[in-house]
Amino acid sequence: MQSNTERFPKGFLWGGAVAANQCEGAYNEDGKGLSTQDIAPRGIIGKITKEPTEDNLKLIGIDFYHRYKEDIKLFAQMGFKTFRTSIAWSRIFPNGDDAMPNERGLQFYDDLFDECLKYGMEPLVTISHYETPLALSKNYDGWVNRKLIGFFENYCKTIFDRYKNKVKYWLTFNEINSVLHQPYMSGGIFTDKEKLTKQDLYQAIHHELVASAMAVKIGHEMMPGAKIGCMILGVPNYPLTPDPSDVIEAMKQDRENLYFADVHVRGVYPKYMDKYFKDNNIKIIMEPGDAEVLKNTVDFVSFSYYMSSCATSDLTKAKGASGNIISGVPNPYLESSQWGWQIDPKGLRYILNLYYDRYQKPLFIVENGLGAVDELVIGKDGNKTVDDDYRIKYLNDHLVQVAKAIEDGVDVMGYTSWGCIDLVSASTAEFKKRYGFIYVDRNNDGTGTLERYKKKSFNWYKEVIRTNGKNLI
């Protein structure tokens, strides 16, 4: 590395990320329809109720819908160059298959993006982030039904036309490969996970891949200057031992995730999926025109990174193999967070190199962060704060590895820390797992003032951005 000032390129997009369903609240205001998230109560991931329940903290979130100006101003104080958020599909088309969009929903995002641009902050917008309109989930079984391609196309045309002069950076589906693990949350698939066949699951994935490529095609036609990327859940899989069988198992698990990016970047199904489909008696129904649509490839690859995982062909070799959030076994060389997610900064450098070697496309880290139980205290200046040195260390160590990847020759566009302001957990709809630089006074039981307080990490990240990473150690 030549010098600290050259760690990150000029114009690097520093910022933070949230999702509409985890922060906006206002689930039934201004014409918004219900989404799959609105009937997912606090508790077990993937659980569904018939109607919204009071214990679903996402119904209010952090009230970003009404407080976005206050929050964007705080992001601007940190110096954000970009802000990643999502559009709630059911705020634009309440049922997903409506003939006309909801003007009040469209206006909200007009106002939000205007507020970002006022501070010189580029909106980075995810089109579909874990919140399929509930009517599409119930009435069509989500992405299992091919009709969703048309509904999604209409949605994309509407928002591209509306925001073409305000949004330059777009992502199609958030962590699209997570549908393998959470078909309801990720793909709006209403069929119970245990009853969902692999045939239906992979057909739903095909529909999403076609829809994503269609969004790229339409986006490039309607917004010639826009950059449109895919977004995948990034988890490198290490072989647990040097046993060649473990190496092969790690390769297989890597391909489960790489398959999605391969199609987005190369425009065709990878050959290795032929064997998987054959072994599992899966026959993808590809209608005329699908292969041509898939050739509309993305401009960049974005991904989330929280942990790595290990793979083995023999679980008896893994002591205490309880597993992580993604299939795999714990790495004996790594420590874990309070939620059991293994902390592996070097894994971020590794996966950046892996993706860039494979795709030669610009990469964007759009989620990374540490979920922890934060304690609000009175700081030296008399103001409430959180002494989150543990978060500073986590982010520092990961960003140092990003700098090393850039030195390796990887083209990295930017970095948006996940949950830059505290929000509701995507999986369990609870509040005690916090990621933000900004503390929001809300608790798991729903109590709290919703007041915002700067954590210690707020000023640390502000300095990271100001120095373009020079202060990292």
From TrEMBL:
Active site: E367 (nucleophile)
Coiled coil: none
Highest taxon, organism lineage: Bacteria
Keywords: Glycosidase, Hydrolase
InterPro entries (alphabetical): GH_1_N_CS, Glyco_hydro_1, Glyco_hydro_1_AS
E.C. no: 3.2.1.-
Similarity comment: Belongs to the glycosyl hydrolase 1 family.
Name of the protein in its database record: Glycoside hydrolase family 1 protein
The organism of origin for this protein: Clostridium frigoriphilum
